[in-house]
Specification:
Shape: flat
Distance between the termini: 56 Å
Strand content: under 5%
CATH superfamily of the largest domain: lambda repressor-like DNA-binding domains
Order of helices and strands: HHHHHHHH
Number of domains: 2
Helix content: over 70%
Oligomer: single chain
Structural class: mainly alpha
Number of helices: 8
Largest sheet: none
CATH topology of the largest domain: 434 Repressor (Amino-terminal Domain)
Length: 132
């Protein structure tokens, strides 16, 4: 178990994937920005080690530093969001009975639903073009 945790902490490809997802970016969009294929992004995100020059390019497109990618952790991100949310709520005298994690999950679900509707719309367009 300890080895799996260490792998997750040091696996740069997974960190890139998580940051990309949190930014709401698809692999295709990242690929276009980097001038490579979506398959290359998929392979990159499966790589534990990534060359510094490649990491710098990816970081620039994602709007973060290479160090931020290297030091990224889900736990720290969730903690930061929770603390920021709680600090802001307390400063205005508001306390809510839902957690920031529930809010993140709800936003993620909304994005997935939107992407599914967009995909369905694109499929409909393809069908219309095929029938012409």
């Amino acid at each position: 178990m300890e080895t799996a945790e260490k792998t997750n902490r040091t696996h740069l490809g997974r960190k890139i994937s998580r940051i990309r997802e949190l930014r709401g970016m698809k692999q295709e969009a990242l690929a276009i920005e980097l001038g490579i294929s979506q398959q290359a992004i998929s392979k990159l995100e499966q790589s534990a080690e990534i060359e510094d020059s490649t990491l710098e390019k990816v970081a620039k497109v994602l709007g973060v530093s290479a160090e931020a990618i290297k030091n990224y952790s889900d736990e720290a991100t969730i903690s930061f969001i929770a603390n920021t949310y709680n600090d802001n709520a307390a400063s205005y005298g508001h306390y809510f009975n839902f957690s920031p994690i529930e809010k993140i999950v709800a936003l993620y679900d909304e994005k997935v639903e939107l992407l599914e509707r967009l995909l369905e719309s694109e499929k409909d367009k393809v069908e219309i073009l095929k029938n012409k």
